[in-house]
Amino acid sequence: MIPDPLIILSPPRSFSSVVSTMIGQHPELYCFPELHLFVTQTVGDFLDRESKKENYSGSPGLLRALAELHEGRQTTSGVLRAGLWLHARRDWTIKALLDHLFERVAPRIAIEKSPITCMDAEFLAIAHGCYPRARYLHLTRHPVATRQSMGEFFSERKRLRSRHHAQASLEFDHLLLWYRMHRNILEFTARLPEGQVLRIKGEDLLSEPDRYLPQLAEWLGVRTDTAAIEEMKHPERSPYACVGPMPARGGNDGKFMRSPQLRAGRVREPSLAGLLRDTPIDWIAEPGVELLAAAGLQPMDSETIAAEVSALAQRLGYH
C-alpha cells in the first residue's frame, strides 16, 4: 500500500528546496525534486506543456527522479532513457505516474514540492483530486525577503533569455506574486479537515531545527528519536542536493544545489512596514491589467495592494 504523500505548498523562493530536502532525509520519508506534475491530468498533456517552454530540455526534476529510482543513479544516459520511458507512457494519468514514483519509495512517505502548484486554484484542485488524504505543509517566508529573492532569480532568468530571445516582458512587483500564491494556499487549505494541514515559518524551522523538526515528525506520525532528527539536519545527503547530469541540471533551487548544507544561526526577518514606507512600489507596469486578470485579481491601486499584503503578512506571522 502506498502511503499518502506530504505535499509542500509555497511560492517560489520560500526555502522550499532546503526545507523539503531536510524533511525528506528522515528514514521514513523520501523527498522528490520539483516534479511540476499537478498542472495537467495526463502525461501527454504534461509533455506537450513542457515542450512549449523556452530552452526546453524536459522536466529536470522528473527525469532525475525516474533515473534515480529506475537505475539507482543519475547519469546523462539514464536521464535520456527516463525521457524515452516517459514519452512511451503519454496515455498515463498524472496520478498513475505519481503512484509509480511513490510505490518505488514505499513504505517511505513521498514528499512532493513544486511551487507552481500554488500558482492556480486549478492546480491545487488537481493535487487534491489525486491525493485527497495527503498531508499539506504550508511553508512561508517573509514577504520582503521573498520579494528580494524572486527579483534576483527572475532578473537572472531574464538576462539569460535575452542572450537568445529579444522579447518584451511584463514587469510587476514580486510582492504581488507572493500575495496571490499565499492567498491561493489559504483558500485551498481552509476547506481541508483539521490536522491535514500544518503551517510553518521557514525562518523558524531553519533557525531552530531541533525544536521544529520533532514537531513536524510527530505531526506526520513518524519517528521523533534523536537519530532520525539528526538525519533531517543533513539535506546535503539527498541524491537531488546537487546539480544533475545533462540535460537535467535542475530540479531544485540552484543556490541550494551548489551549497546544500544546513547553515547554523538565526534567519533574519526584515521589516515589511519599512519597505512600504520607504520604497516606492511600482506594483505593476503597463500593460498590467492582463497579468492581474490572469492571476485572478482585479486592478487595485498601490495603497490598496499594500494594505492587502500587510494584512496577509500579519496573518502569516510577519510584520
Average pLDDT figure:
89
Structural class: alpha/beta
> Count the helices. How many?
15
Estimated helix fraction:
40-55%
Output the CATH homologous superfamily: P-loop containing nucleotide triphosphate hydrolases
Strand order within the widest beta sheet: 2-3-1-4-5
Q: Kindly state the number of beta strands.
A: 5
CATH class: Alpha Beta
The ordered string of helix (H) and strand (E) elements is EHEHHHHEHEHHEHHHHHHH
Terminal Cα span = 44 Å
Descriptive report:
With 319 residues, this protein is α/β, with parallel strands linked by helices. The protein has one domain (6-148, 175-264): 3-Layer(aba) Sandwich (Rossmann fold). Helix content is 49%, strand content 7%. It is built from 15 helices and 5 strands. It has helices at 16-24, 43-51, 60-71, 76-87, 94-105, 121-130, 143-162, 175-189, 202-207, 209-220, 226-232, 254-258, 272-278, 289-294, 302-315, and strands at residues 6-9, 29-31, 109-113, 135-140, 197-201. Strands 2-3-1-4-5 form a 5-stranded parallel β-sheet, sandwiched between helices. Helix 3 (60-71) packs across helix 4 and helix 8 crosses helix 15 (302-315). It is globular and about 55 Å long.
Features:
319 residues; alpha/beta; Rossmann fold; five-stranded parallel β-sheet; 15 helices; globular
How is the topology of this model organized?
Elements lengths: L5 E4 L6 H9 L4 E3 L11 H9 L8 H12 L4 H12 L6 H12 L3 E5 L7 H10 L4 E6 L2 H20 L12 H15 L7 E5 H6 L1 H12 L5 H7 L21 H5 L13 H7 L10 H6 L7 H14 L4
Parallel strand pairs: 1-3, 1-4, 2-3, 4-5
Helix pairs in contact: 3-4, 8-15
